[in-house]
Amino acid sequence: MSSNSDFLCSLEIPDCAWFEFTEGGLTSVVVKTPLAQARVYLHGAHVAHYQKAGQPPLLFMSAATHLAPGKAIRGGIPLIFPWFGGLPENPQAPAHGFARTTAWTVESLKCEEEVVTLVLTLNESAQTLENWPHAFALRYTVVIGWDLRVSLEVGNTSSAPFTFENALHSYFSVSDVRSTPVVGLDGIEYIDKVDAATRKTQSAEPLLITGETDRVYLNTRATCLVNDPGLSRQISIAKEGSESTVVWSPWMAKAKAMADFGDEEWPTMICVESANAADNRVTLAAGAKHTLSAVLSERPL
Ligand code: TA6
After folding, report:
1. What pTM was computed for the model?
2. Tens digit of pLDDT for each residue in 212-265?
3. In Å, what is the CA distance from 40 to each residue of 123, 145, 192, 249, 268?
4. Ligand 1 midpoint to CA 222 (Å)
5. What is the pLDDT of residues 30-80, one digit of tens each?
6. What is the atom index within ligand 1 of the atom nearest the CA of 167?
7. For the chain, which end, N or C, has fewer CB atoms within 10 Å of the first or last residue's CB respectively?
8. How far apart (Å, rounded) are the C-alpha atoms in residues 129 and 206?
């Protein structure tokens, strides 16, 4: 085992949290406690699975996802930084930035009163500087208990301000996206990415998905709820440090067009993402920090 693997193994907590190493694949932290189960890949600091005891999985993961270095994972909570969507100045740059396809470093792994806290870090490198010429320090904290709490701290370690976008691109598992309205966005302005980025305003009604949906809601700090009668549960996405909420359903055609997504998987997921995107991009002074966090939880409906 490499010294890194030795270090990781030294962090393991028997019967609570340990590391799985797959040859040529990815290293992940596996958590199993009386409260919940979870899996977090070091690749992209990617929370791939979270399941509260006695409940179905909270997060969706495509059966067709890639699980390989350098490849985005389709499901769970992709970490988006430092740009959302494409990079205007470089169309060849990876969609949604480099954080989700880069290996992160484990800083700590702890278990207190059956709640597991994992901290991962990422700093600039020759690869990141290619497309984004800034020094930064990311610190991602994942807390696995009766709910799932994630927090992304962005530190500007350069000598000048920089501007970034970020998102917790959460894929939620639902019974049928056609009957799981999203509550909390009424009256909010949004960019409709399936209608030439036209700016519109959400009606007073909950958002019910009736086709491909790709909306960036702006200037909203509201908690969103996904009501899922099929699974008799309400999912809550409570956020801090986020001014945008993105809602995405690929629907049929986009599902068929994605190689890492099953053609028939689209009804079983919805993305409700806590973000800072478009008008809400963040400009951070040299030496300053910004934190984007979310508490993802569920209760009976
Ligand atoms: O968050 C919605 C979105 O920006 C959509 O436009 C769609 O591209 C989705 O993200 C998935 O992006 P990805 O790069 O993971 O395929």
Report:
1. 0.97
2. 999 999 999 999 999 999 999 999 999 999 999 999 999 999 999 999 999 999
3. 19, 14, 32, 24, 21
4. 22
5. 999 999 999 999 999 999 999 999 999 999 999 999 999 999 999 999 999
6. 1
7. N
8. 41
**Separation of CA 65 from chain center:** 15
Amino acid code (one letter) for 133: P
Query: Of ligand 1's atoms, which has the minimum distance to the CA of residue 271?
Result: 1
Task: Tell me what the pLDDT averaged over the chain comes to.
Answer: 96
Ligand 1 center to 218 CA (angstroms): 17
DSSP conformation letters of 103-134? B-EEEEEEEETTEEEEEEEEE--HHHHHH---
166 CA to centre of own chain: 10
- Copy the structure tokens of residue 117: 């806290």
The stretch 116-121 carries a mean pLDDT of 98
Spatial strand order in the sheet of 27-32: 17-21, 27-32, 36-41, 46-52
